[in-house]
Design goal:
Elements: H1 18-29, H2 34-45, H3 60-72, H4 81-96, H5 107-112, E1 133-137, E2 149-153, H6 154-160, H7 165-177, H8 188-200, H9 206-210, H10 227-237, H11 244-253, H12 258-277, H13 284-293, H14 298-308, H15 313-325, E3 335-337, H16 338-341, H17 351-357, H18 371-379, E4 412-414, E5 423-425, E6 429-431
Antiparallel strand pairs: 1-2, 3-6, 4-5
Helix pairs in contact: 1-3, 2-3, 2-4, 7-8, 7-18, 10-15, 12-14
């Protein structure tokens, strides 16, 4: 009877083999950093050439690209538009010296941001077809990470340049008041929507966030990080799906007392009137924009603030969490933990302290051409009282700053499919539009 002998005592090599060995060896020999080397390597692995500016011989991108070409030759992977955008975004983050979260930010994720032939920019409302759209991060104090990315029209990205929330909010306020002209090719409503969109992913004091009108709903895969704004989004989206009368009864039943319940009912009836004005036959995109535009109404904002300022951040979180457990969230919204909502964001250590004590200082990076004029206009914005029934559309830096404690989590609301879906995240648990 024949027998076969197998050698089992040969130790497994801990050293990677094949292409992995080539990558490790070449990266160790390269003079540049491993991140730039890996970007060049991934370009060659997909049969692509990095931009000419990064092909100088001493650059790590060029070294990684050449090393991978010698390994893969013509045996490359396919690369569609999403892969090319992913590589370009990684290269941009590396060039800016900003962290890039590689696990969740994939070509598949980027393909879902503003996807579809009828997709429009949430800020300018212009079509995003072809090369018009640009994926960018909204919170410039956080990394290129899932939940902090949105696809905007290239004109919006160019107009915003390096402006952060502390420059955008007062600028939008001054333009809204007529005290400044809308610069850089965007109209006044577009600047307002841009400021609000950035505020959704920026930690703010509870009372300050409560006074930001929801002039734009979060686009697909965005995470809202302030509880009161997540509540604002969740309630507004109720009117985007049929059956809202039954769901609103469920929302009201979860409120702690009659005073808050009455404020809730008055606000929702005010918002309902704007929903009915949009008509029964409005398509998803027209209805979405009608709900956004309803927040330009002073009465809607006064009644929202009457409700919002009666709630703490912790109460908003609890209300949203219980509503999510009862299936009252709509439009693809889902609940995320605080850790999951901001996973990979690399937010500054003082971000939470900022949310409790006040806004961060203006972005100190080098301004784009013309940025000084925009900042000068923003710096002249007049302060407003949070309790002024006429002018309380925008948050005052001097208003109340009661917020949830440091142990709070976040809710992230994120749209998955369709124009009406949107992602947002709130402190405590997180609800996200996917």
């Amino acid at each position: 009877m024949a027998q076969a002998a197998f050698v089992f005592d040969r130790p497994l090599s801990p050293t990677p083999t094949g292409a992995a060995t080539a990558f490790v060896g070449a990266a160790n020999d390269a003079a540049g950093d491993v991140v730039g080397f890996a970007i060049g390597w991934d370009h060659a692995q997909r049969g692509l050439t990095p931009p000419l500016a990064h092909l100088h011989s001493a650059g790590p991108v060029r070294q990684g690209w050449q090393a991978a070409r010698s390994v893969f030759g013509t045996r490359t992977m396919t690369s569609g538009d999403a892969v090319q955008q992913w590589l370009a975004l990684r290269l941009q983050a590396w060039t800016e010296g900003v962290a890039f979260e590689p696990v969740q930010v994939t070509p598949r994720l980027l393909a879902r941001l503003g996807a579809g032939a009828d997709a429009v920019c949430p800020v300018s409302r212009l079509p995003l077809a072809g090369a018009a759209g640009r994926v960018c991060r909204l919170n410039t104090h956080a990394a290129y990470a899932a939940g902090n990315l949105a696809r905007l029209h290239r004109d919006v990205v160019k107009a915003r340049a390096t402006l952060d929330l502390d420059a955008l909010l007062p600028l939008a306020q001054r333009i809204d008041d007529g005290a400044a002209h809308a610069p850089r090719g965007l109209d006044a409503p577009a600047w307002t929507r841009l400021a609000v969109l950035v505020s959704l992913v920026t930690p703010l004091p509870h009372a300050r966030a409560a006074c930001v009108p929801l002039r734009v709903l979060p686009p697909n895969r965005l995470r809202v990080v302030n509880p009161i704004q997540a509540l604002q989004v969740a309630l507004t989206l109720q009117f985007s799906v049929a059956g809202y009368a039954r769901r609103l009864l469920g929302w009201a039943a979860l409120l702690p007392d009659n005073d808050v319940r009455q404020s809730f009912q008055i606000f929702m009836h005010t918002l309902l009137a704007r929903r009915l004005a949009a008509g029964a036959n409005a398509d998803a995109q027209a209805l979405r924009q009608a709900l956004e535009d309803s927040w330009a109404n002073a009465l809607v904002n006064r009644r929202w603030q009457r409700l919002a300022l009666r709630l703490s951040a912790a109460q908003c979180e609890q209300w949203l969490k219980r509503a999510a457990a009862r299936g009252l969230l709509v439009a693809g919204s889902r609940w995320l933990s605080a850790e999951a909502a901001t996973d990979g964001w690399c937010v500054d250590d003082n971000a939470l302290a900022t949310a409790e004590t006040g806004p961060r200082s203006t972005n100190q990076s080098a301004p784009e051409p013309g940025a000084e004029n925009v900042r000068r206009a923003a710096s002249g914005a007049a302060e407003r009282s949070l309790h002024d029934p006429v002018t309380a559309h925008w948050p005052s830096r001097r208003g109340p700053s009661a917020v949830a404690g440091r142990g709070s989590r976040r809710i992230s609301i994120a749209p998955i499919n369709g124009a009406a879906a949107a992602t947002s995240s709130l402190p405590c648990a997180s609800a996200a539009h996917v």
